[in-house]
Amino acid sequence: MNGRSVETTFFWFIENYSYSWHKFGEYLRSPSFSAYDPENTSWWIALYPRGQRYVSRGYISLFLARNPTDEGQENVSVKFELSILAADGSIIHSETKKETFENNDTSGFEEFLPIDSFYKDILTVRCRLWKGDGKTQESAPICARNYIAIKNH
């Protein structure tokens, strides 16, 4: 791989997002995804539609979490970028962070984006994950889709 880190890109599509019933402190959990680099690590995203804690009410809180049982190294230092994308793929908001994760650790942003910043029924979250400070080599994207059920009367 020419000494380059391989970047993992995960897209999470949440359909019927505007029907989310979650209260502050309650989250949506993405399906797990495996990273290309660091090897043998598994991750997921926690999205709090109405904020993680009382102080972040009015905001979407967004976090990257490492699965508790992956087979990667005990401590893994990575850079990650969490983004909310518009329907055309443009970035509505994006934040980047460098963090060292142990198994079951989470890191992210409590006040990621004001709740009223978008009103679409499909919310697209993108997570880019890589290690090191050098250039990265892109890999094929990983995609997952969740649906918020709507009850018809």
Automatic annotation (TrEMBL):
Q: Which superkingdom is the protein from?
A: Eukaryota
Any Pfam family hit: MATH_2
Provide the protein name.
MATH domain-containing protein
Record domain MATH: where: 7-142
